[in-house]
Amino acid sequence: MTESTASDRFSDIRDGVRALCAQFPGEYWRRVDRERAYPAEFVQALTEAGYLACLVPEEYGGAGLPLAAACAILEEIQKAGANGGACHAQIYTMGTVLRHGSTAQKAKYLPEIAAGRLRLQAFGVTEPTSGTDTLSLRTTAVRQGDRYVVNGQKVWTSRAEHSDLMLLLARTTPKEQVQKKGEGLSVFLIDMRDALGRGLTIRPIRTMMNHATTEVFFDSLEIPADTLVGEEGKGFRYILSGMNAERILIAAECVGDARWFIAKASGYARERKVFGRPIGQNQGVQFPIARAYAQSEAANLMVERAAVLFDAGQPCGPEANMAKMLAAEASWAAAEACVQTHGGFGFAEEYDVERKFRETRLYQVAPISTNLILAYLAEHVLGLPRSY
Ligand SMILES: Cc1cc2nc3c(=O)[nH]c(=O)nc-3n(C[C@H](O)[C@H](O)[C@H](O)COP(=O)(O)OP(=O)(O)OC[C@H]3O[C@@H](n4cnc5c(N)ncnc54)[C@H](O)[C@@H]3O)c2cc1C
Questions:
Q1: Ligand 1 site, residue 132, Cβ cutoff 6 A
Q2: Taking the model in full, what pTM does it have?
């Protein structure tokens, strides 16, 4: 099977990630999935190899690689049957601090993040009531002297139990008092080690896959005023600027998932004999796999295009969104074809198909749902009236 040539651009990195992932075979992922355990050993190995610091600039001790390299890393992780969802946010969440943080914040945190001594992989945006409508979020941070007092609740704050720091989006000016609708929200870099038990409570949410996601409660949590990132009231803009990177990287993960499913399905279809011939000889079995292959290769081109634009500092909103949507749909098509090709064995734990099937389904909902991407394209690219 051939893959697009740009995939060879980071062949050393790809080889390294593949070799690392080979130490964490299916049995490892089945165990952590069964126990709903954090894949701590895997995350540690990625940290020690420096992959999670790939985007941190060299001056702060990171590798200073382009986003396209981070795409290669995450794609390879998923393609190896592993699950980067346990730590992918460690790669990109620091981007908000890098782009908008103060000199002091960058000097304090980025070298520690790059060295893997500090984890910044929790991102508190979504709330139970507002959901996708981020501007209606209700968590407030009220300035009192040299502190802010935070009250409210987040949901789906993934990896909060496995992160030292959290990037929090909270309202600092009531919605009714802002001039423009995107204003009045602020970003804070919270040290959860200090905050736990002093107004911060984290409760895990059990989900259909092993994702270490949580709900987080803020009950008059006091945080130092210098945890504010950038200017007060501009947080929504800062968060948006990080979302393109997140979408492109998650799209690369979906391409990796699709490639895993397609290789697994093709291999099984070649080997499995029913009615005295390989099941893969039947067009009814071949075609869904071939279609998913075409979809995933096309999605990969969009991921590459979006990453090139991002790395060149060009606007890439449409491409980042399209990459995320197309790749999530391709990975789901490949997952579906893979289960169907395996027949009953697609449901058996030991084939890993059902686990990856559950894991890849997430990406049509998070970090942004397909409908909202379509609404974005309709409004901002096609000039159609806003639908909500
Ligand atoms: C496992 C997991 C991990 C997550 N991790 C994080 C995290 O780390 N940090 C974080 O902040 N969030 C996280 N999320 C939240 C995720 O980003 C949201 O679930 C997602 O954005 C959808 O929001 P919602 O669940 O509130 O759905 P809702 O906003 O309630 O939407 C429900 C459905 O209605 C559709 N819909 C809503 N409005 C419209 C409209 N105007 N037009 C068309 N369709 C519409 C949506 O597409 C969706 O399918 C995570 C979610 C999950 C499940």
A1: yes
A2: 0.97
User: How many folded domains does the chain comprise?
Assistant: 3
* Residue that finishes a domain, picked among 46, 80, 115: 115
pLDDT bin (cut points 50, 70, 90) of residue 1 is very low
Scan for tokens 């981070």, then name that residue.
70
Structural tokens at position 165: 């720091």
Q: Is residue 16 part of a domain?
A: yes
Token pair for 158: 């993934």
| Structural domain includes residue 211 | yes
What digits encode the pLDDT tens for the residues 256-293? Answer: 999 999 999 999 999 999 999 999 999 999 999 999 99
Residue 365 CB–ligand 1 contact under 6 Å? yes
Considering the candidates 246, 253, 304, 319, report the single residue annotated as catalytic. Answer: 246
Q: Rounded to an integer, what distance in angstroms lies between the CA atom of residue 92 and that of residue 88?
A: 7
Average pLDDT over residues 290-297: 98
Quote the ligand 1 centre to 257 CA distance (angstroms): 21
CB 213 less than 6 A from any atom of ligand 1: yes
